[in-house]
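Help wanted!
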Amino acid sequence: MNYLIGAFKPSCNISITFNDAKTRKQVPFKKENGQTVMVPLFQSQENISGKVSVEPVPGKKVEHNGIKVELLGQIEMYFDRGNFYDFTSLVRELDIPGEIYEKKTFPFEFSTVEMPYETYNGVNVRLRYVLKVTISRGYAGSIVEYQDFMVRNYSPPPPINNSIKMEVGIEDCLHIEFEYNKSKYHLKDVIIGKIYFLLVRIKIKNMDLEIRRRESTGSGTNTHVETETLAKFELMDGAPVRGESIPIRLFLSPYELTPTHRNINNKFSVKYYLNLVLVDEEDRRYFKQQEITIYRLEENS
Amino acid sequence: MIPDGIEDDDKWLAEGIAAIQLQAFYLHRALDANNLREALKYSAQMLSELRTSKLSPHKYYELYMRAFDELKSLEMFFKDESRHGVSIVDLYELVQHAGNILPRLYLLCTVGSVYINSKEVPAKDVLKDLVEMCRGVQHPIRGLFLRSYLSQVSRDKLPDIGSHYEGGDDTVMDAVDFVLQNFTEMNKLWVRMEHQGPHQIKEKLEKERNELRDLVGKNLHVLSQVEGVDLEMYKDTVLPRVLEQVVDCKDDLAQYYLMECIIQVFPDDYHLQTLETLLNACPQLQPTVDTKTVLSQLMGRLSNYAASNVDVLPEFLQVEAFTKLSSAIGRVIEAQADMPIVGAITLYVSLLTFTLRVHPDRLDYVDQVLGACVKKLSGKPKLQDNRATKQVVALLSAPLEKYNDTVTALTLSNYPRVMDYLDNGTNKVMAMVIIESIMKNNSCISTADKVEVLFELIKGLIKDLDGTSVDELDKEDFEDEQNAVARLIHMLYNDDPEEMLKMICTVRKHIMSGGPRRLRFTIPPFVFSALRLVRQLQGQGGDVVGEEVPTTPKKIFQLLNQTIEALSYVPSPELALRLYLQCAEAANDSDLEPIAYEFFTQAFVLYEEEIADSKAQVTAIHLIIGTLQRMHVFGVENRDTLTHKATGYSAKLLKKPDQCRAVYACSHLFWVDDQDGIKDGERVLLCLKRALRIANAAQQMASVARGSSGPVTLFVEILNKSVQLSLHLIEVTLIRYLYFFEKGNPNIVNAAIQGLVELITNELQSDSTTPTSDPFFSSTLRYIQFQKQKGGAMGEKFASIKV
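Answered by r_m:
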């Protein structure tokens, strides 16, 4: 048995390390198999450099047709699992064909890598960045090793950030005016706002503010939309009367939000909405949805 | 249905309490372990129990108190950063992550309280934030309790003067703003309860709502406790804003309660200085609000304030408290057109009480109040409403009680006008109150004007008012009333005869209108009052007598004559007769012979024409004889006429014994035991003899009757009695003989006495039915014996009489 296993065992160990591994921030990353591991965090335009070591199993040699390292940015649709669409692909040749008898280390560097999209793990789609080392061999097949890393891109505060203000209602039944202080929020932001009741003829039981994420994948007739409610935050308990104004203060930090993604490589979009929901005593829901933009603000640290 | 509801209520409460206890258990475990995350989780779960809508306010309160107790330990935990390692600022954010609003806000208030305590930020910022955020709870009961919790935890953290939260950016104004805002919001929630829920259970809801009122009122109490709320701030900020809310909420229950609260919790001098503002709010209240009670309470407080401290009285004047209150009441009455008349009058009663306490010297104020009341009542029929009537009586009684001197009330021009609006019965009651007050205070009414006013006031007693049927009157009540009037007449007095005469004339004018039923009661005191004046004039002697003096006894007697004459139409001849005789006697004392004669004439005329009853005749004749005997003013001619008449009447009485008694009484008319009195011994003897004759005749009649009666035993006793009676008459006549004998009447000789004694003795012996020892006769004999033994002139005189 040992023999048999040994036959399929790769004849060498490949490890990929980053040069600044000790200082670089590590963030949790959920792998395909559900395990969470810590991976280094990059952003666009950064240099990604490191070392690839190939260590043959003692007493064996590795014969190859060349070794390369690739930096891949991939989008995977879950209805088409295993089929990756690479939107970024950079290659560095590490070794010319030959034989390796003992541990050999190859430095590599991708400088100022353009990584426009953030790592994203959604319901129907994911976007990942990975380093892929390939030792090409003839008959025996190539030996491949992957190293995931995360990309987050930060935005400066938007120069124009208007409030959202709107009057909505059902004629002779309910008229409200709501206001959110901004239209663009960063991930740790606070939504401040107010709801004015201009006319109330229905018996309202309560009012919630929901944060909804709308992930749409595919295009044309194949578009698939998935909506999740990430937050359900009660704003009001009981029935207001005309003239009441109800404050809104919703901290975004407790929720697992991502920045808004618009038409990532024509593959998918992730949008966020604030959904104001009023529920009456007969459990009828009256709601108004407003899109907000979420962005990632550089953390000061 | 209802019992079920109550049972369910209990069941839900029990469930709620159990859940709170369970979560509290986990909460405490988390606190013991200093585990913030768990503590927040379980406290939020515990507080979620307060989200129930099933409980009545009463039960909800119980539930709330459970949670409240638990939150205290949570607050302690929050306070100690070393236990949880999170800065208070972060904690303040952290609790806001809770998804449900109610637990979130309870936690926020709890942390907020710690936040203020830490002084990391100005207290006002936290307070403002909390009071704003609490708007999220719009459910009345839950909102009220949440805000009540906020008020509770922030109470000792207000930036008040002297509190260590004051200073920097924090001023008292922030504290006041905070409390006012919380108050306003709570009141809105409270008012809203009114309009929720089905109408069928409206009453129940109202009751439940009422149970919550103290939660709202508590805010006003907090405000009153804030040191920094001085008069100026109260005037400029607190009161206007509270009143704005009170007026704006347009809810009668709330308006009434809050006005009451304002009046109760803030100091008296504040009320005094802001009277105008406070009063201006009153007409703006809902018409259904019991504004009168509110105003009454205010006036009550102010009057107590004035009563407790004399030094503050100038302040009342300075702020023109009376004028303001008075006009406010006017406006309220005007604004609340539907207010029953009783309400308006109650208000006036309060105002009057206030006036009497605060401005006891300002009778014009009192009169103004009454005037306003008249205005309100004018154009309306007499009061039918019992309660209103009661209030009017209270209104009218107040000045009487205050001014122990009832006379003061008489100077109030509107007083009688108010009385006019009372129904006849109450009018009388009120008149009685007035009279009683006069009696109690022994006030003397001393001018004709006052008498005029007084009688105008009590006219309900003096004459028949329109629309009262005689049958309605209770005889006993009527007599009581008239007796009271009679007593009142005696209270009218002035030393100055001229004024007194005027008063008497005034009284006369009024009582003469009283009708026959009243004259019987009112004329006698009037007569005696007038006679008192006569005596007074007499006492002053000749000093004031002169041609120009208008007040002469003569005049008074004329008046009296006319007055008494009225009695004969009542008819009440016996009474008139007595009064004539009284007058005659007074005239006698004043040496006015013609007048005295006139009175006697009147008396005799009455006797002849009006007094037909034999018993009454007997009484009358004795009165006449008695009075006539004392008259010394008459000349011989007049006297003869009168005595002759009297004797004649006496002899014409129906019954023999009565005749006998009257005749021997007449004997005294001819023998006045005075220095220069008449001593007509002959006529005395004539009278006595005549009396004896009558007695004998009576005796014979009795004997004849006895003899003929035979077996009719029934009459024996009666006859015996009559025999005894006639014998007794003789005995009594004997006494007269002895009297005149003693007084030295030469016509009475001892032989006559001797004869009488023997006659009686014989009679006594012969008559078996009569006990031989007649005590009366025995003592007469003893008296003769005594006179005999006394010796001297008298002894000699008697010596010849043998007994």
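OP: Thanks! One thing I noticed: The longest strand of chain A covers residues 204-217.
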